Amino acid sequence: MSPPRRAILRTLAAAAALVVLTATAGCGGDAAAGGTEARELRYQGSVGQVTLPELAADLGYLGDVKLNWIGNVTGGPQDIQATATGQSDFGGAFNGAIVKLAAANAPITAVVSYYGSDAQTFQGYYVLDDSPIRSPRDLIGKKVGMNTLGAHAEAVLKTWLARGDLSPAEVKQVELVALPPVNTEQSLRQKQIDVAVLGGVIRDKAVDGGGIRTIFTDYELLGAFSGGTYVFRDDFIKRNPETVKAFVTGVGKAIEWARAQPRETVVARLRDIITKRGRNEDPSLVAYWKSSGVAGRGGVIDEKEFGTWIDWLAAEGELKGNRPKPADIYTNRFNPFVDGGSA
């Protein structure tokens, strides 16, 4: 069995395990006795970067809802696993990874988009300038480094390979390697991998260093789209609907604030947040921030942003039995920006 296949099977096994784990997970930060809603949300952050909830909190958009940072995460599947098992109150991941959990009957619901791809912010597949790799067929037998297997980068890559007329057997010959985002550029330059998947500020910093070029980007392949959403457990939503609404509203307002401000203003705010929180981080990455990439106004979720990946996973044989429906996985009912509204 190929390494990529083993990785995907491990992801699916973990998703199935979550069904059991969630049944025994404690309420964590849920509402206290007497019906009072939770006003503190446990979450995982990212080293040297500012998440949209962190930006929303700093702007005062979360009202009296507070964030409680419990550590950092390197990949979305790990983040939503922590949420589904009750270790955190919300987490974010690629929509395809959320579909896998939904298909395994994990009780989570996506509530607001938080990242995506547009002309300014996207995930690119990079090679060294002197690399012979230019087309999908050139990747056969090559190594591709990405932050998480079984998620956004793998789904987009395999879509590109399929559109390049590679057979399933040929696709399996492309070796996928999981690497922390901060190490992926270095691995490419040291020729430990042949292709590096780079996104956001990490990508821009790598491009600034010169010597690399793109073979394609997710934006070129799929156009502008939101790629990932924040999820809550269903029991948390049931107990704390107003808290979830405050969170979604705050994140939506933060998306629109960043969209409306000069880039320099946003960068300065992000740098200030990193300095104030005192986690001993290098704030240099935020200088490359360009946009959140979120397609929908205020993070409103579009049905196709789940439907696309449901279809892809089904075609890959990743979904067994009846396909989940997009409407069963996400909701926009907490988002004031839906149907043209505003916060």
The CATH topology assignment of the largest domain is D-Maltodextrin-Binding Protein, domain 2
Low-confidence stretches: 1-28
How would you state the average pLDDT, rounded? Answer: 88
Structural class by secondary-structure content: alpha/beta
The CATH architecture term of the largest domain is 3-Layer(aba) Sandwich
Provide the spatial order of strands within the biggest beta sheet. Answer: 7-6-8-5-9
- In total, how many domains does the architecture comprise? 2
* Helical percentage: 40-55%
Return the string of H and E elements.
HEHEHEHEEEHHEHEHEHEHHHHH
Question: What is the β-strand count?
Answer: 10
The N- to C-terminal Cα distance equals 50 Å
Top-tier CATH class of the largest domain: Alpha Beta
Number of helices: 14
Percent strand: 15-25%
Radius of gyration: 20 Å
